[in-house]
Write a structure and sequence with these properties.
By secondary structure, the chain is an alpha+beta fold. Helix content is 32%, strand content 40%. It is built from three helices and five strands; from the N terminus they run H-E-E-H-E-E-E-H.
Length: 154
């Protein structure tokens, strides 16, 4: 009987552990090679970068915002105020996981899938806003707006 009282506690602990583990990729963070999640950036030239972000169980829009946030951070750190996205690629990969148990002709199991949205940006940075440019983003506006939208601290 003593073991029966421990069972609900073990179930609650297991659920808390699984929930915490599954939320790993939801946050905005540097690339983690173990999970293959997060942002990565590579400087390709004096004012040109390649930015990528791969998320876990988030929308493609949120992944796009995280890539733009990283672009704003990178350009600001390099002394630029504005940037333009010169190329963008979006994709989502899905992984299915399932189990099936069979006993005397009857079966039971479960199936679940996990999505990993990914964004790759090529960006060009500018110290001053180019005259007549309409698709240039201001990192001094964009970064705080996206941090607030997703409740991120600096």
């Amino acid at each position: 009987m003593k073991h029966m009282r421990l069972f609900p506690s073990l179930i609650a602990l297991l659920c808390a552990f699984l929930t915490t583990g599954c939320s790993t990729g939801r946050s905005y963070h540097a690339f983690d090679s173990y999970w293959s999640l997060g942002y990565n950036d590579t400087r390709m030239g004096e004012d040109v970068w390649s930015i990528s972000y791969r998320g876990y169980e988030i929308s493609q829009g949120e992944a796009n915002d995280y890539a733009l946030l990283r672009a704003a951070e990178v350009t600001a750190a390099a002394g630029y105020r504005y940037f333009a996205v010169t190329n963008e690629q979006n994709s989502t990969s899905t992984t299915a996981v399932g189990t099936f148990n069979s006993y005397q002709g009857t079966g039971s199991g479960f199936m679940s899938s996990t999505s990993y949205p990914e964004v790759r940006l090529s960006i060009k940075a500018f110290k001053d806003k180019p005259a007549g440019a309409t698709t240039v983003l201001d990192n001094q506006y964009l970064a705080p707006a996206l941090r607030q939208k997703y409740n991120l601290t600096k």
